[in-house]
From TrEMBL:
<dbReference type="GO" id="GO:0005525">
    <property type="term" value="F:GTP binding"/>
</dbReference>
<keyword id="KW-0501">Molybdenum cofactor biosynthesis</keyword>
<keyword id="KW-0963">Cytoplasm</keyword>
<dbReference type="InterPro" id="IPR029044">
    <property type="entry name" value="Nucleotide-diphossugar_trans"/>
</dbReference>
<dbReference type="InterPro" id="IPR013482">
    <property type="entry name" value="Molybde_CF_guanTrfase"/>
</dbReference>
<keyword id="KW-0342">GTP-binding</keyword>
<feature type="binding site">
    <location>
        <position position="20"/>
    </location>
    <ligand>
        <name>GTP</name>
    </ligand>
</feature>
<dbReference type="GO" id="GO:0006777">
    <property type="term" value="P:Mo-molybdopterin cofactor biosynthetic process"/>
</dbReference>
<keyword id="KW-0808">Transferase</keyword>
<dbReference type="Pfam" id="PF12804">
    <property type="entry name" value="NTP_transf_3"/>
</dbReference>
<dbReference type="InterPro" id="IPR025877">
    <property type="entry name" value="MobA-like_NTP_Trfase"/>
</dbReference>
<protein>
    <recommendedName>
        <fullName>Probable molybdenum cofactor guanylyltransferase</fullName>
        <ecNumber>2.7.7.77</ecNumber>
    </recommendedName>
</protein>
<dbReference type="GO" id="GO:0005737">
    <property type="term" value="C:cytoplasm"/>
</dbReference>
<keyword id="KW-0479">Metal-binding</keyword>
<keyword id="KW-0547">Nucleotide-binding</keyword>
<feature type="binding site">
    <location>
        <begin position="8"/>
        <end position="10"/>
    </location>
    <ligand>
        <name>GTP</name>
    </ligand>
</feature>
<comment type="function">
    <text>Transfers a GMP moiety from GTP to Mo-molybdopterin (Mo-MPT) cofactor (Moco or molybdenum cofactor) to form Mo-molybdopterin guanine dinucleotide (Mo-MGD) cofactor.</text>
</comment>
Amino acid sequence: MQATAFILAGGKSSRMGVNKALLPIRGKRIIEVIIDELIPFFPNLFIVTNDFETYDFLKVPLIKDEFQGKGPLAGIHTGLKKSCTDFNFFVACDMPFISGKLAHHFVQICALGHYEAVVPQINDKLHPLFSVFRKKTLLKIEQYLQLDHLRVRDLLGELNVYYINEKELSNIYVGNIEKIFYNMNEPTDYEQVKSWLGIINKN
């Protein structure tokens, strides 16, 4: 089945101090690693950003938030409004270990179970920025944004969501499950990523 992928790159990276999507790992920027992982499974791929100049070098279609300054929920809204497919995968731009295969599996779960969204819940923590949303959730999301209700998890409470936990994921994915959903907010998070990759700083 067809699905579209959207990389959300609208954050300010204030805690990181630099644009975290552009941090290098093994000769590529993190956002390039994410694109390379997703493209084989999602030939229709967009970056949601309000800074076209920064990401133009990627040669990937860029789209801008209609509701600017309203966080990830606005990015999901932007993607759904642009999408021509029923199923849509969303991921943050600071998750260097994502699995395109797993993302595609989420799409299949969403379709087979007739859910409105599929969201991982690992060790009781939700990861809505590695998730699938149906096109038909657009109206509800738009209503939330118009009312300035910006918490994605509040929205999930009103949708038919399939929450996939670590036990189920262990049956379909071999590897460190928590690492897939690891996102970077602070410099120490980036150092952790480099440590996992065996990258040693040269002073």
